Amino acid sequence: MKKLLAIIIILLNIFPLTMAKKVLAEEAVVSQSGRIKKNYLKKNYIDQRDYYLKNYLSEKSSPLTPFSKIFIASADKYNIDWRLVAAITGVESSFGKRVPYGSYNAYGWANGKYNFKSWEDSIEHVSRALREKYYNKGADDIEKIARRYAPPSSTWAWKVKYFMEKIDSAPIQFELQS
Fold first, then answer.
1. Which of 49, 115, 137, 149 has its CA 20 to 30 A from that of 14?
2. Which InterPro entries match (predicted)?
3. For residue range 92-147, what is the model confidence (pLDDT) as tens digits?
4. Cα of 80 vs its chain's centroid, Å
5. Packing angle between helix 156-167 and helix 84-93, nearest 10 degrees?
6. pTM above 0.85?
């Protein structure tokens, strides 16, 4: 009976692993210098990013919680760290809780005066702009982004890094990939 019970327990632990699908995953880490770098993992990997982001936003009672997959998809599309835009919302609007009514502007975009059409539109717009108007123009780490995004703040960059690490505590190397 003990052997049968042991076999059942082993099978129950192994079965979920056989259901996992292969994913080419990215692991992003923030270093002391605040540079983002993605490490591509070419092995079986279960992408946990949505789980981490959704749980973190939920803990903050964020109206952005249902859009965790959109944050990740936009980050992947524009090749930026998947935590970056969500972390910016933490600094600028307490994760979307303090925004001008109907603006969907959780990013302090245009000093909070810009109105987006929807949360999805805002996530896409900010992700694209970070790639095209910041990184592609030389702002290739959080401190350089901060100088343009939130001048003259001396705390914006470390706050963004703080929230990125809270979303997923994996080490962060901030070197956006071209």
1. 49
2. Lysozyme-like_dom_sf
3. 999 999 999 999 999 999 998 999 999 999 999 999 999 999 999 999 899 999 99
4. 9
5. 120
6. no
> Would you kindly state where each structural domain of the chain is located, as residue ranges?
2-173
Please report the pLDDT score of residue 169 as a whole number.
85
Does the domain made of 2-173 have the CATH classification 3.40.50.150?
Answer: no
- For the chain, the 3-state helix, strand and coil shares in percent, each to the nearest 5, are 55, 10, 40
Whether omega before 152 lies within 30 degrees of 0, making that bond cis, reads: yes
Summarised one tens digit per residue, pLDDT across range 20-75 is 444 444 445 554 444 454 455 545 667 899 999 999 999 999 999 999 999 999 99
What's the distance, CA 132 to chain centroid? 18
Q: Which run of H or E residues covers position 163?
A: helix 156-167
Residues with Cβ within 8 Å of residue 164, at least 6 apart in sequence: 30, 81, 83, 84, 87, 172
